[in-house]
Amino acid sequence: MSFQVLTKSASKRLAMWTKFRSMSTVVGDMLKTDLANSRDALASSSKKGFEATKRQSVLQLARSLKSPRTDWTKEELREIYNTPLLELLHQAQLHHRDFHDPQEVQICTLLSIKTGGCTEDCKYCAQSSRYDTGLKAEKLIQLEDVVKAAVEAKENGATRFCMGAAWRDMKGRKSGIRKIGEMVKEVNKLGLETCVTLGMVDEEQAVTLKEAGLTAYNHNIDTSREHYPKVISTRTYDDRLQTIKNVQKSGLKACTGGILGLGETREDHIGFLFTLATMDSHPESLPINMLVPIRGTPMAEELTKKNSIKLEFDSVLRTVATARLVMPKSIIRLAAGRYTMKETEQFLCFMAGCNAIFSGKKMLTTMCNGWDEDKAMLEKWGLKPMKSFKKHSSNLSLV
Ligand code: SF4
Predict the structure, then answer these.
(1) What angle do CA 139, 144, 149 make, to 5 degrees?
(2) What is the pLDDT along the chain (399 residues), one digit of tens a residue?
(3) Binding site for [4Fe-4S] cluster: residue ranges?
(4) In whole angstroms, what is the distance from residue 306 CA to residue 152 CA?
(5) Residues 6+ apart with CB under 8 A from 355
(6) Under the phi-then-psi rule, with left for phi > 0, alpha for psi from -120 to 50, and beta for the rest, what region is 196?
(7) Which of 281, 290, 284, 260 lies closest to 272, judged by CA?
(8) How many distinct helices (H) and strands (E) make up the chain?
(9) CA-CA distances (angstroms) from residue 359 to 108, 247, 253, 329?
(10) How far is the CA of 118 from the centre of ligand 1 (A)?
(11) DSSP H or E segment with residue 290
(12) Radical SAM core domain: from which residue to which, for each copy (predicted)?
């Protein structure tokens, strides 16, 4: 065998060996990639599994509570709010049944006792004197007109009568407070629960109203702390919280909620619920309003812009259901804007934990579903009006 032949055969073997090496490198790399992929997949699936367990545990924690908890974290609320929708609604409905009679709905009627001319700049409000909405400012109405409206509301099945005045606060309104105290006394004589909304009050004013026999004082936080400055500039979020504290300290029940559809994000819904769910004491009544844009207000104008955030119905349901799970004893009230909802949408809100409505001729300035229409709807669903003072006669956390 010549040297040349030897070299030829050696270089052939070398070429084969190199090819084999490169093939095994490719195979090895493929195996390595597969292994890495499987490891990632395993890690991601166990992460998902862990997240699912965590989600279940926050929901389960909420479901296991026998009395309201006030130290919720935003992360916990976010977790609940983002639960798959059917599961969220189902759990909220079960929780509702642990704390309330599922057949009962509180029917309230609202009356504007002093319309328009308010000095505040709430961007959505028809009653602010800063906007040209065509609303005529009026003086405080007479006692007999209030009594007449309350009698009519009672005859139509209302068990709570709410009176609203467009004022910034009650500073220097001694005679106003006295007159409203008279109204409260007269409405109470009819056996109706009473609620008023008069702007900011201090503790002394709240005590005066309590002594007149008032059941609840309405003062909303409107939205999340973060979104609030985009809606109102003439009073702070903390001013609002202070009024609610004053109300609760006086022994009055707080009726406190907000408005959805002010151009806020879903994260703002979580922030809004976080403020309510971490109050020293949850609101006895939690109104959920859906914005009815009023021509002439800055908010109505803003919402026509292309990039404005529109309220989606599933986020209304998520807000109601989360509220029901984390504030189980509160009466959740579908308030302004209900007339814009389809009956099926209202039904879903009840499934999510609502148990109160406003019914009558009008809200403060917007339309309201009428008594007859609501009676027919509730009858169809097998629901009945909640009796007055039922929720205040018992200290039991569970029904
Ligand atoms: S929402 Fe109330 S405080 Fe704000 S402008 Fe209207 S009436 Fe005044």
Answers:
(1) 90
(2) 444 444 455 555 655 555 555 555 554 555 455 545 545 554 554 455 445 555 558 999 999 999 999 999 999 999 999 999 999 999 999 999 999 999 999 999 999 999 999 999 999 999 999 999 989 999 999 999 999 999 999 999 999 999 999 999 999 899 999 999 999 999 999 999 999 999 999 999 999 999 999 999 999 999 999 999 999 999 999 999 999 999 999 999 999 999 999 999 999 999 999 999 999 999 999 999 999 999 999 999 999 999 999 999 999 999 999 999 999 999 999 998 999 999 999 999 999 999 999 998 888 888 888 889 999 999 999 999 888 876 654 333 333
(3) 118, 122, 125
(4) 44
(5) 96, 100, 104, 105, 106, 331, 332, 333, 386
(6) beta
(7) 260
(8) 12, 10
(9) 6, 25, 21, 22
(10) 6
(11) strand 285-290
(12) 103-329
Q: How far is the CA of 127 from the centre of ligand 1 (A)?
A: 6
Smallest CA separation from ligand 1 atom 2, residue: 166
Report the amino acid identity of residue 169.
Answer: D
**pTM score, two decimals?**
0.83
| Size of the chain in residues | 399
**Which residue type, as a one-letter code, is found at position 91?**
Q
Residue bearing the CA closest to ligand 1, atom 7: 166
Residue 39: its H or E element: helix 3-64
The sign one gets for the Cα dihedral 303, 304, 306, 310 is positive
Tokens at 79, concatenated: 């977790």
CA–CA separation, 30 and 205 (whole Å): 77
Give the chain's radius of gyration (CA, Å). Answer: 30
The catalytic residue among 125, 349, 354, 368 is 125
Where do we find the tokens 């903390």?
A: 238
